[in-house]
Amino acid sequence: KYLFSNQTYTTFNTYITVLADNKDINSLDDLQGKKVWAGGTTSATNTILTNYNEEHSDNPIELVNNNDTSGEYQITSLKEGAWAATVAQERDVASWNKEYGKDGKDVVKMVGEPINSSLTYYLYDKDNTELRDAVDEALKELKDDGTLAKISEKWLGGDYTGE
After folding, report:
1. Distance between the two ends of the chain, CA-based, in angstroms?
2. In 106-115, which positions are buried (b, 16+ CB within 10 angstroms) versus exposed (e)?
3. Do 124 and 3 touch, CB atoms closer than 8 A?
4. Residues near 28 by Cβ (< 8 Å), separated by ≥ 6?
């Protein structure tokens, strides 16, 4: 039904995220038996954590599901102990630290390897190859000359254009 672009324009890396002073949680395995905010029930992160629990049914992670991704809610819930960790995109963690950190100190940190990494593509009508090819060419030029990275830094706070 659809035609995907050949060029990506951003990368979403999602990590287990904990309070910056947490030294006990360094991986998914450290979350067994603990509460973790997993996003909405239809989110990719919820699916990843649900699959993890199926593989570790003897000591699963307790998933908390809702759609509130606001930094204030996430940070407050971590500080109050509503859950031991949350899942967040790299750019959200950077934004939360900028907004809620104090005296140059981060309030949260990412731990371990990304639990999910996905590239972002444009979608087109399946027969619209001419538009797709033109946008792909423009994206490639923007990547090659560094403009896309500069746009990402300006609007997202960092270069999140990598593959």
Report:
1. 25
2. bbbbbbeeeb
3. yes
4. 16, 49, 52, 61, 112, 115
pTM recorded for the entire structure: 0.82
Question: Are 36 and 49 a contacting pair, CB within 8 Å?
Answer: yes
Name the token pair of 75. Answer: 């940070």
The residue count for the chain: 163
Distance CA 150, CA 161 (A): 10
How far is CA 139 from its chain centroid?
A: 22
Query: Would you state the pLDDT for residue 163?
Result: 62
Radius of gyration of the chain (CA): 18
The span from the CA of 60 to the CA of 97, in Å, is: 29
Cβ burial of 72 (10 Å; 0-12, 13-18, 19+) is exposed
Confidence at 147, pLDDT banded by 50, 70, 90: very high
Q: Which residue, chain included where needed, has tokens 């444009």?
A: 122
Q: Provide the residue type at 70 as one letter.
A: S
